[in-house]
Amino acid sequence: MSTPCTLIIDDEADIRELLEMTLQRLQINTCSAGTVEEAKALLKTHEFNLCLTDMKLPDGDGLELLDFIQKSTLTLPVIVITAFGNMDIAIRAMKKGAFDFLSKPVDLAALRQLIQSALKLSQTDPTAERRSRDTLLGNSAAMCTVRGKIAKLALSQAPVYISGESGSGKELVAKLIHKHSPRAEQPFIAVNCGAIPAELMESEFFGHKKGSFTGATSDKIGLFQAAEGGTLFLDEVADLSLSLQVKLLRAIQEKKIRPIGEQREIPVDIRLLSATHKNLAEMVNAGEFRQDLFYRINVIELKLPPLRTRKEDIPQLAEHILTNLSHSHHLPKPELSQDAIAALESHTFPGNVRELENILERALALYEGNTITAEDLGLNPVAHLSESEQTKQSTFNPSTGTLEDYLETIEKQALQKALEETSWNKTAAAKHLGMTFRSLRYRLKKLGME
Length: 450
What we know:
The protein is α/β, with parallel strands linked by helices and 450 residues long. It has 4 domains: 5-122, Rossmann fold (3-Layer(aba) Sandwich); 141-305, Rossmann fold (3-Layer(aba) Sandwich), CATH 3.40.50; 307-394, Orthogonal Bundle (Helicase, Ruva Protein, domain 3), CATH 1.10.8.60; 396-450, Arc Repressor Mutant, subunit A (Orthogonal Bundle). The chain has helices at 13-25, 36-45, 62-71, 87-95, 108-122, 141-153, 170-179, 201-206, 223-226, 242-254, 280-285, 291-297, 314-328, 338-346, 352-366, 374-377, 387-393, 403-421, 426-433, 437-446, and strands at 5-9, 29-33, 50-54, 56-57, 60-61, 78-82, 100-103, 160-163, 188-192, 231-235, 256-257, 266-267, 271-276, 300-303, 335-336, 371-372. The strands form 5 sheets. A 5-stranded parallel β-sheet has the order 2-1-3-6-7, with helices on both faces. The relative contact order is 0.07.
């Protein structure tokens, strides 16, 4: 493999010299420019594996160079250097496609780490298969767009916020971004922030030293250290406490953590991905989520479409799920009847793909013969109605029944939806509904839903 070459762009000669010396110690050739125009000329006539640019230049800025590289056929990763504390510019740069950023004064250890990660990306075979069609199923326009974005996001270090309803595949998308990135051989650590008790969150995220608090009988590494070199995926990030949000923001910005009881900060190298089914923007407006953290994790947002908006994908998804379920349960794979497919296509799927999996798994256990019919699916009839029909049913009409009957129907629908959205986990459904587990069991029994 030929020696990699990096283009360094900075108008200060002493900084260019420092960067050149740092890269030469890594056995990397360098070429330097002091202005945007000089850099453009070199990019047109030379091949580079990496671009390292200051943000403020005499005749322009690093954002202009990013635009130039994006519009050309060049695919080299770009690391931008920003003034200390200028996070807005750094975020704008990553939105435009920068690989990552560093703040002045440049931490040489962090620079070396970033360069090595970026060079892994530039040395990847550009013809390598980056599609996720066989994993993230669906031929709808919405899913084709999502797969295209995954391929692009894998080429960056920018934090990605994956938004979408429960069961829409947020963790699967996070795994695909990791799989197609230069970090693919390093750990992928996923954590459900809502499943960690508030009093243990700091220890879980940053680790602790032995004896730092009652019960700390040994050293413990946190999630950031466990994901070193790889990707940390924070699912249900909206459930983080405000106190931990402050510490998480610092860890992301400084790329350093301090375990509980430790006197010094420890550098960490992770790619951060996060997700939630809640509306973070609304939570920011309500003061329930820090605005600065929201902007930091939401550098790039990837929205996942709900299943009800891409119904043309349902037959393919259903076949794939049935194949996997039949294989895992050592059962012959049944056929889906046309009325079953029609019933699935007309279902609203509040629980999205996860709900589809649950419906098919239940049908696989109950069907008879060689074919799963609409009746075997056991769908809630209310879910088949159009939105206008559901609206009509949601209004009390004394001529169609008593108020008690109407309220019982509404309660059943709420319980059914909560159970479907939590994969029929009663403990999670009770939490989702704001009631105790015992109260949920009582209501299910009372309404004949056990």
